[in-house]
Amino acid sequence: MKQNRWLFVLGAILILLLASELIWYSPYTSLRKGSFSVLNVAKQSEGSMMNITITYQLNASLPLDATIVITPVRTNPKDLPVYVFYDVDYPAVGTDWVLVAMLQAHLKAELTLRGYESAIKLVNAEELKTILLAGEQAILIMASGAFPSNILSRDVNLIKPWIDSGGVLIWFGFYVGYYVVDKGMTKADIKDDDPRNLRQNGSKLLGLENYFEYLELTDNPLVADYSSPISEALGTSYDLIQQASFLHMVWADNGLVLGKIGGEEPSRFRSSISMVPRGRGRIVLFGFFLMQSLALNGPESAAWDIAQILSSGVMQMDPMSVMWHRDHRLAGGETLTGFASMTTDFEIAGLAVFEYTYKKSDGMLFYRDFINVTDVDNGPPITNPLFLR
Amino acid sequence: MQTIISLFHRVLDHEIFGYIMIGLLLRLVLMPYLTWPFDLGAYRSGLAYFLNGYDPYFFHASIYPPLVYFLTLPLFSIAYSFRFSFNSPTISDLIGGSSMGAVASSAVNPGFLVLWKLPLLCFDLLAGIVIYHFVKGMTVDPKAPKRLFLVWFFNPFTLAISYVHGSYDLLVAFFILLGVFLLYKGSYFSAGLSLGLGTLAKTAPILVALPLSIILLFRGSEGSLSVSALKAHARDFLRFTGGVGASLLPFALLFVEYSYLMYEGISKEISITGGLNQWFFAADPQKSYYVNQFIGTIQTAFFYYPLICVVVSLFFCKFLKFDQERVLFAATFFTFLIYFFLPITMQPQYLVWVLPLLIVISSLKRHFIWLLGLCSAAGLLFYLSIQSPLVFFYPLAMYTSLWRPEELVRYITVYSNIPGVFSRFLRQDLCTLFGGIGFVGLVTTTILLIQNLWVHKNDEAK
Q1: How many of the other CB atoms lie within 10 Å of CB of B390?
Q2: A32-74+326-375 in CATH: which number?
Q3: Closest-CA residue in chain A for B72?
């Protein structure tokens, strides 16, 4: 009989777990009631500019640390398919294939949370070649630190024409195009003076001449210290700049600084994440390799950064406009109504509205929408926008 | 009412009541302001996804099994309904990488830490009570139950990994202990239930349950087994495995996802960075590089572990006559065996899985208490050597004026960079040293367990 006491203990634990499971699976619990909605959009023209005011409502089920980002965009952001290059028949340089696979898995999770509607797939060198040759509009993530020789080498350059036709390349590593690897090579075969490597010519082939400065690993500052306005708005955290692109070159090309800024002197300031337009496409440059898991600049935090970039509409952002953002902290069960006011020109196609929660937040809530400003009627301006609680 | 009052008096008068109170106070002091910053992000993010109704495994937000979340869900839901919030300004402020790597700094709201560690408090106490009853039923020494309860309840290693670190390995220890206790008592379904619930807390209990189920089915095969004996064994086997299944089935959806994630995680693990098992020398980066050249082979070998323990348990059945005590020794042996096979890097907190069984065994064979002390000390010192004991104090520095986080970072950085004697850094030397001592403890205990399985008191009597 005495041993049955322990059966009661086990039974009690089991019942507690089952009750908890029931609550978790039930759609009617208070855990999942947070919401974000755009209540109203008002537009008023003033000469060549227009003032837009957006009224939104945020409702928290759990305590919420939310940020709302509104980006003036030139085209309606589309969820392009995302391809992550992963081919273990080629060596990864400065990182590991496991980390690349983790990047894809975490990116898939992060984008699913944000309601991204296209596939996020791993592709090998042959599949990648097919995608590039077909000129498919897509996002390609090269996080293995080197290009396979069937894509970019002294004789082949499938990347540049693909970008020019509207592709988006996201690059991690030593500066872009430096290393080229052949099928069957191993990590031990990677040599800096290997004739296969394009070295400084790699970036020229991609139209990024003078973007980088070749210095020994110990000669460049490794970490960026200052947030840029966009990194602050999107909460991007990647901060390595050892081989990052120069800030002045990014700006000169109508590019955007998406990451942090650092460097020894203003003329050599670098950005940890930069976006540069090329033809109809874009190149997004991360300032160094993909680092180890569960660390800053590892696959988890890099996936977060990429998801933020792809979800926020910043890829289509008008470089002359300013991104609007505001942080809110709500208690559990609280509702907040807020306004966003911005002035922009008539070149924009609309506004990308993006709401996200930081990892530190108890509640999680993500929202994305596109507001076509041409559909919005002119109306009286909303003056003195205040937060109403 | 009278019954309740008399029960209350019995509890107050119990010989361990005072110690329980002191132990609980000690734990309550440790809970809010100490934690292990490397795992904190994982605790926090997995739970956040779960509380928001997202599957933490689908979103790669957790490497912890579902039991942790189902246990903490009611606690946090109640706390949220009282408008508590647990956000923290530095939760993902992680510098560096693996536990053997650079400095980590991260803190979390003390309220979160208390709620997170509250289930540990319950299972810790329950484990102590099981030890007390287990020992009481095994020994004639009237002082042994209290003495061994105290060994468990005030073991600095257990306190550190549960109330400083916040690791849920104590739950695994409890379920393995209770499972073995119930098996010892011949309550097979309950034993299976306990090991099944333990499996929802970590993979180890199922790896103990597997060989034990084989032993239940084939025990006695050293002689000729009659049909009726075989039938009886089959009934015991079915009860035991039925218990395991009964606890796993209701949580199968998340459990399968978790198991797949674990499988993927282990098969993709790219490095062995030292530990308390045979890879202790990999705490030194150069030796780690050598070991990791063979990581594919090592991983393949690890995946054969279930087959290995089936073969070993069949071997035992062929040559040993199993009684209750031998089952206890066998269960302890198979828990130890996991350390040599899974996981590939043996974190110090995993050692707690087997400590309660060692404590119980020491009531039969006293020398096991010394091995328990050796393993606990090695585990604790290894743990403190990784980044210095200061690394646990981030919440204290963040939320009280006793310390400043920058000061902590400075001291920890200084510690991390102290040159070593035979490795690059002192911390790597210390991890190798204490890992080595822990390994000696594991090997010695395993050998003694095998010896005790063979030279058993019944055999001695013959």
Answers
A1: 20
A2: 2.60.40
A3: A20
